[in-house]
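Q: What residues go here?
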């Protein structure tokens, strides 16, 4: 008999794939909008128990760099506070690595 499913974890994130889904300028605007909405969800759920809060994974540091360059100071501060609080998680790469270009060496 297989054990019953005890837990399902959802990981909220988007995948940035420039050129596949749209032009770079369009993809950036879309992802900045996604990040705006993710911040709003984090803010609106801040008072909930930890296991019920909204968390978001930012796949590319490039998005954060551009967010900090183009958003007003209050939004920039909110983003940094959400990162410090652990509501947002920032991946280490500026963009996605092109694994096809690498070798085993």
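A:
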């Amino acid at each position: 008999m297989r054990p019953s499913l005890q837990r399902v974890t959802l990981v909220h994130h988007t995948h940035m794939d420039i050129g596949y889904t749209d032009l770079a300028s369009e993809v950036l605007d879309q992802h900045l909008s996604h990040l705006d909405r993710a911040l709003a969800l984090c803010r609106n759920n801040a008072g909930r128990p930890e296991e019920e809060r909204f968390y978001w994974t930012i796949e590319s540091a490039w998005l954060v760099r551009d967010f900090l360059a183009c958003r007003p100071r209050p939004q920039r501060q909110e983003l940094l506070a959400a990162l410090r609080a652990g509501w947002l998680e920032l991946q280490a790469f500026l963009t996605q690595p092109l694994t096809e270009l690498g070798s085993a060496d």
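A: Context that may help when evaluating the design: The longest helix spans residues 24-44. The mean pLDDT is 87.
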